[in-house]
Design a protein that fits this description.
- It is a single chain.
- This protein is globular.
- With 291 residues, it is α/β, with parallel strands linked by helices.
- It is 31% helix and 24% strand.
């Protein structure tokens, strides 16, 4: 009898992107949705992967470490992309600011305070985390830490709220996103942050900016400049991608890492986004919707 062969399931990526941006993963916290990010990372290869700050939440880990195998797998998967030839640009944020002490080039991993990216259609975009212009982070560090604790409390309440929503057959809902959308001061802060970031890009002689920090995914045109925010992997599960044809899209994923929908599109092919079929119906966090 001929020997039988076992068919192995391939872990190879099936999509090729020119560039991918992720930020605010917050590894080391209970709120980190590492499983979703890992699912996304397995689906693509890219020329350049930008990690735009707060990959590891050192602030939270000082209060108590929460680390899972999936969180380790995220780091291994990012490093593997570098070994396969992708250029990895790591821009530290405020939660992983100690990484900035190791600025430099490590094979295909480049740690630097900010970067410039040139799109297919020739636009020069500044890439920065965004905490540089957050006056609370820069001038009142203690208040930023207090706010961070409050944010994590909201995230813990999210778990309780969504437990009961599942019992009653309702989809996922983000309490912290609701608070952001409804509290006037928070809304004003986000608007002010976005305008400050495009000014930052203008001062750097760039046509736009790509950032994270505020966990609010968006593609906007502000005062003639392009503003992109990658969102986060705590609530929104969003990433910014640049396709080979130059289109930039914000993609949102399910909690298992499957593509749920395209939130916004712009770039070389100015066409409306096609709505991908959602494998599992979930409610969109308010802060993830781009206008």
């Amino acid at each position: 009898m001929p020997a039988t062969t076992q068919q192995l399931v391939s872990d190879e990526a099936t999509i090729n992107y020119r560039s991918v941006w992720i930020s605010d993963v917050h590894l080391g916290t209970r709120g980190c949705q590492a499983k979703a990010l890992l699912g996304f990372l397995k689906t693509f290869d890219c020329d350049t992967l930008y990690v735009v700050g707060d990959l590891i939440d050192i602030w939270a880990m000082k209060r108590g470490v929460f680390w899972t195998q999936e969180q380790s797998d995220v780091i291994q998967k990012i490093l593997r992309k570098g070994r396969k030839g992708a250029k990895i640009i790591y821009i530290p944020g405020n939660h992983d600011e100690r990484i900035a002490d190791f600025t430099g080039d490590y094979a295909n991993v480049h740690i630097q305070p900010r970067a410039f990216h040139t799109t297919v259609d020739g636009r020069r975009l500044l890439v920065a985390h965004g905490h540089e212009l957050d006056t609370v982070v820069q001038n009142m560090g203690w208040l930023a830490h207090v706010g961070d604790i409050g944010y994590h409390i909201l995230m813990q309440l999210n778990g309780t709220v969504n437990f009961f929503r599942r019992i009653f057959g309702r989809g996922h809902w983000s309490l912290s996103a609701y608070v952001k959308a409804k509290v006037k001061n928070v809304v004003n802060f986000i608007g002010g942050f976005e305008e400050s970031m495009v000014h930052f890009a203008s001062d750097a002689k760039a046509q736009g900016i790509i950032c994270g920090h505020i966990h609010t995914a968006a593609i906007r045109k502000i005062k003639g400049l392009d503003y992109y925010n990658t969102g986060d992997w705590v609530e929104s599960r969003t990433a910014l991608i640049e396709e080979m044809n130059g289109q930039l899209k914000i993609l949102q994923f399910t909690h298992t890492g499957e593509l749920m929908r395209t939130l916004a599109v712009c770039g070389a092919l100015e066409k409306p986004a096609e709505q991908e079929p959602a494998p599992a119906r979930e409610e969109t966090p308010a802060e993830a919707v781009a206008v």
